[in-house]
Design goal:
InterPro entries: Ald_DH/histidinol_DH, Ald_DH_C, Ald_DH_CS_GLU, Ald_DH_N, Aldehyde_DH_dom, Aldehyde_DH_Superfamily, Succ_semiAld_DH. The longest helix has 21 residues. The protein has two domains: 281 residues, 3-Layer(aba) Sandwich (Aldehyde Dehydrogenase, Chain A, domain 1); 189 residues, Aldehyde Dehydrogenase, Chain A, domain 2. The chain contains 15 helices and 22 strands. It has 491 residues and is of the alpha/beta class. A hairpin with a 6-residue loop joins strand 1 and strand 2. Strands 12-15-16-11-10-18-19 form a seven-stranded mixed beta sheet, sandwiched between helices. The protein has a six-stranded mixed beta sheet with strand order 7-6-5-8-9-21, sandwiched between helices. A three-stranded antiparallel beta sheet has the order 3-4-22, with no helix packed on it.
């Protein structure tokens, strides 16, 4: 048995997912090595999976290429119907999916359930969008010609997803690809591959033909990434992860001028102006900072608060943060789960030490919890200076630095003073200020008087070194389509 009792005891229908090692295409040679997946809250072994290599990836690509013509030739309605069936199956088993997600990633079960619903929403959205792939006619310069534009699938897509949202990121990438008529090879993060495996298990039941969806389990991403980027049969790479890895993949894709969609790192500012509703800003900051234990690419990383409301905000925010309970995600009273691994724990500890040495004041938290698991107290630090690491680097954990500011124009300049441009947030009530700040912030997404803005109906993505392209919305579908111009003469 490849899935252990420590996972299956949480499942209502364990028979559906008990052998996730068999989910990768059965026609791909079984990997000789295996790797283990652990629960970050308890350290328990959850599963042992085949550790696939570049040779396995190459075989999966060949399988995908063979399936591309058939899948791309289906009508939009046929593709839509298959996506709808997959959507319904995932909703019908949403409690089991949430349990798998909590076990392998650690987030609280309520957050896991929300993520599964969000993943299903992407499948539903693109099942609908599949029927809205339109071309156009162009007025020709002479009467003996007709000029048309049609859209066709890009072809085989390689997708690489991160560990922090292992269900919704899979759905956000592959559902538009499938709707457009593309086939997919997916490599999920090695820390959280089980939700992807469970999704693919139900994809078989939904009726996707062999070779349309191909899953790669691997403990190391380097060889998989190189094969996906260098193999000429892969026409597009979609990646979510760090900017450093994004740069590497971009270089590897450059020899073939391969199409890419990258959603990379962030360093999100959260600005509270003196005309803001402070209570609403506190609530928004809790959502934007501590969802998924701060392990989100759009997490509020720098909290700027104007002097007139700084003390009130800091006091109310600290009270809320101190009340957040940390623990195993299966505990219904827990609001924050563990960090994903020891490296993440070491990073947040280093950021706290650096801030304290440079004059920061810990208002709440600041310490690791226990000796087992990777739990860290939700932390608030004030008296933050620009020289501190927490003001310059993405922490990716439950640490909130509050930075006092006076000048509204200067804070926008400081917020923009980063190579990243994924997400930003601000709270204000003056309409003139709202428009001016929203347009001045150099970010692909701006939350105004809200701490949450992700939706399958909206374009998700960033500027500068936070990525290329958008996911979600109708714009996310365009990334998987080629535009072809047809000029018909002799008419």
């Amino acid at each position: 048995m490849t899935v252990t009792q420590s996972l299956t005891r949480h499942l209502k229908n364990p028979e559906l997912f008990v052998d996730l090692a068999s989910v990768p295409d059965r026609n791909v040679a079984a990997a000789t090595k295996r790797f283990s997946v652990f629960n970050p809250s308890t350290g328990e072994l959850l599963a042992e999976l085949p550790d696939m290599d570049a040779g396995d990836v190459s075989k999966a690509i060949d399988k995908a290429r063979s399936a591309q013509e058939q899948w791309g030739a289906l009508t939009a309605r046929e593709r839509s119907d298959t996506l709808w069936r997959w959507h319904e199956l995932i909703l019908n088993h949403s409690e089991d999916f949430a349990a798998i997600l909590t076990a392998e990633m650690g987030k609280p079960l309520a957050e896991a359930k929300s993520e599964i619903a969000h993943a299903a929403a992407y499948l539903q959205w693109y099942a609908e969008e599949a029927n809205r792939i339109y071309g156009e006619t162009i007025s020709a310069p002479s009467n003996d010609r007709r000029m048309l534009v049609i859209k066709q699938p890009v072809g085989v897509v390689g997708a690489i997803t991160p560990w922090n949202f292992p269900a919704s990121m899979v759905a956000r990438k592959i559902s538009p690809a499938l709707a457009a008529g593309c086939v997919v090879i997916l490599k999920p993060a090695e820390q959280t591959p089980l939700v992807a495996g469970a999704m693919f298990a139900l994809a078989r039941m939904a009726g996707f033909p062999e070779g349309v969806l191909n899953l790669i389990y691997a403990s190391e991403g380097d060889a998989v990434g190189r094969e996906l980027c260098s193999n000429p049969n892969v026409r597009k790479i979609s990646f979510t992860g760090s900017t450093e890895v994004g740069r590497l993949l971009m270089r590897q894709c450059s020899d073939q001028i391969k199409k890419i969609s990258f959603e990379l790192g962030g360093n999100a500012p959260f600005i509270v102006f003196d005309d803001a509703d402070v209570d609403a800003a506190v609530e928004g900051a809790i959502q934007a900072k501590f969802r998924n234990a701060g392990q989100t690419c759009v997490s509020a990383n720098r909290l700027y608060v104007q002097s007139n409301v700084h003390d009130e905000f800091a006091e109310k925010f600290t009270q809320r943060v101190c009340a957040l309970r940390v623990g195993d995600g299966f505990d219904p009273n827990v609001a924050i789960g563990p960090l994903i691994d020891d490296r993440s724990l070491a990073k947040i500890e280093a950021h706290v030490r650096d801030a304290v040495i440079k004059g920061g004041t810990i208002r709440c938290g600041g310490n690791r919890i226990g000796k087992s698991g990777t739990f860290f107290e939700p932390t608030v630090i004030t008296e933050v200076a620009s020289t501190m690491r927490i003001a310059q680097e993405e922490t990716f954990g439950p640490l909130a630095p509050i930075i006092r500011f006076d000048d509204a124009d200067q804070v926008v300049r400081e917020a923009n003073d980063t190579v990243y441009g994924l997400a930003a947030y601000f709270y204000a009530s003056n309409l003139k200020r709202v428009w001016r700040v929203a347009e001045a912030l150099e970010y692909g997404m701006v939350g105004i008087n809200t701490g949450r803005m992700s939706s399958e109906a909206a374009p998700f993505g960033g500027m500068k070194q936070s990525g290329i392209g958008r996911e979600g919305s109708r714009h996310g579908l365009e990334a998987y389509l080629e535009m072809k111009y047809l000029c018909m003469g002799g008419l």
